[in-house]
Amino acid sequence: MFLIKDDFWQVKRTKEKGLGIFAKKGIEAGTIIGDYLGKVIETARYDFNNDKDGLYLMYYTDEASIYPNLKKPGIHLLNHSCAPNCWIYTYQYHTLFFALRNIKPTEELTISYLLSPKGKSCNPCKHICKCNSKFCTGTMHLSKDKYKKWQKFQDNQNNKKAAKPQVIFNKNLPKLTSYPKIIPTNPTIISLFFPHG
Ligand SMILES: [Zn+2]
Ligand SMILES: [Zn+2]
């Protein structure tokens, strides 16, 4: 679900990455782009073999994931970039996407998929990155080192104050009654992912 107004974004077809979300107006750093909503499913029962790319499944709790409604446009359409202009913030167990910096009109909104380092199951790996940024590693997988640092960072800030939700499988995750106004960029994110500026 988008939390920016409809006239701030549009769906457009990209050259190499399928559909993407593009800014129609300038979006200020810290603005919440949306909440990753969808059906609550049991991660252990999810059939990854039937999922062509497996990139829509979002972590919810240790046993549950969120699967978005692919028939509707939503923030699940943000493409991966090695130098994304949006980032994720976990708030009351919901995954919010927010603008990491000021985004200009016509820019594509991008996020890092933060995939774990390439394992044996990822063979052949389909997670090739075509973001064309100067930080492009050619893959959506993080290096072992970056992944470790990211997990540590997440563990330290995640859900600290939130009560664990009551998980109801096969129901849609309802939106929150309220959202933070702005999400400040954490310098750790910048130093972890953009060490060269
Ligand atoms: Zn892969
Ligand atoms: Zn890339």
From TrEMBL:
Pfam family, one: SET
Keywords, sorted A to Z: Chromosome, Metal-binding, Methyltransferase, S-adenosyl-L-methionine, Transferase, Zinc
GO CC annotations, alphabetized: chromosome
Keyword ATP-binding assigned: no
A GO MF term: methyltransferase activity
Domain of life: Bacteria
Compartments in which it is found: Chromosome
GO biological process: methylation
Keyword Secreted attributed: no
Positions of the SET domain: 7-114
Principal location class: cytoplasm
Record-given protein name: Nuclear protein
Biological source species: Candidatus Daviesbacteria bacterium GW2011_GWC2_40_12
